[in-house]
Amino acid sequence: MGDAHKIHKAHAEYHLAMLGELDPGWSEDQYAKWLDRYGAAVDDIRAALDWAFASGGDVTLGIRLTLAAVPLGMQLYLVDEFIGWLERALSRIADSEAGPVAELQLSVALGQIAPQIKGMVPEVRTSFGRALEIADQLGLVEHQIGALMGLFLYNFMIGDAQTASNAAEQLCMVARAGGEPGAVAISDRMLCQARHFMGDHARARVLAERTSIIRWRYSGRDSIRPFSGVDRRISMRVFLARMDWMEGNLDRAVTLYEEAIDYATGNLSYRTVGLALVLSLAAVPIALWRGELDKALVLADQLIEHSQRYTVGFWGDWGVDYKALIAARAAGSKDARASALAKVRPTGALQIDAYATVMEEMVGPTALARVEAGGGGWCAAEVLRVSGERLVAGLRPDHAAAEEMILRAVDIARRQNALSWELRATMSLARLRMQQDRRQDALAALAPRPCPLH
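Predicted structure:
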């Protein structure tokens, strides 16, 4: 072994030890000092990784250094670069002595950060599935937890809330059996998100409010701390804001998403994904639901700028689509409206559902098929309402079928206590009956009814 090899190896080992000083339980102030002190070392880390994976290097050391460097890379917003390092490390597993646990950790890390650039592509599910397979074989509870967290995220982001809920339930069982209270709390967060998107707002609210007041700390195991997690103060406000708007608490919904934006912009550790989540899933849609187009446009621009600055292109696509939808709603002519809508390109079920609630023209066959198949529970009432209205808008109106569909929308909204969707559906029902000269039936649809107290 030559002197050059020894120097390169010592250099890589030094930076591996340095990166090991990062404690997941550190305070924000401690973390900021660590980042300020060691962030400049990224060029040295690159050089060490280049040497480790090159001919004559040390692949095993390179794999260990890759895993240790991922949190730093994420906070420096080098997402695309570190996806490349993770893929390179995984491709060299067979050439190393790293073992199955390292393959597991690399797979989880890749599954967690790849969506920020590539979206929820099938490779993400493959990464988490491989990680869970290894964790199950070795009986490693903490790594089962990490893989299940990833599988939840994948299914949630592709719009399969039921499968996501199943993963969260499985995570809860594994965490309880393994004595991991932090992971149990994480499973509550996940279940909140899944149950909300399934339309079970009552259960989701209980979970969100419980999670918001729980104080817990990660066990310290790296696999249980997501590399790109979002603080519960941010994520729970996102879903509480959405539920508040649907349940008729319109102003409180705004307060909550504004608080979430403040937390996200003021929290260095969670800024990257946290702000994108708030803007995409709460701030912009709530502004559009309220008819505040100017405010929505400012928020959409903020989302685009943020995604470009921090390399989270998946969320930037939401911002571009939102801007097109805002332009369509503000358009002064039919042609201008159509031109703006042509620029909207939803890439998955989550976007299809969201866009259907902010622009009636976005309620297409796919959105309706998802509702009929049991998906898109949170937006089912609105999709059915718009679909029902269309049945009487053509040359051969079918009033009976339209009324049946709108009545389904009213029923779903009432069962979900989604007063905002219920009001829209009830107004559509009354208009439909008035078109048929059924004045008394229309008035009956609009009759006051007892509502739950908030």
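Summary: Residues 218 and 225 are 7 Å apart (CA to CA).
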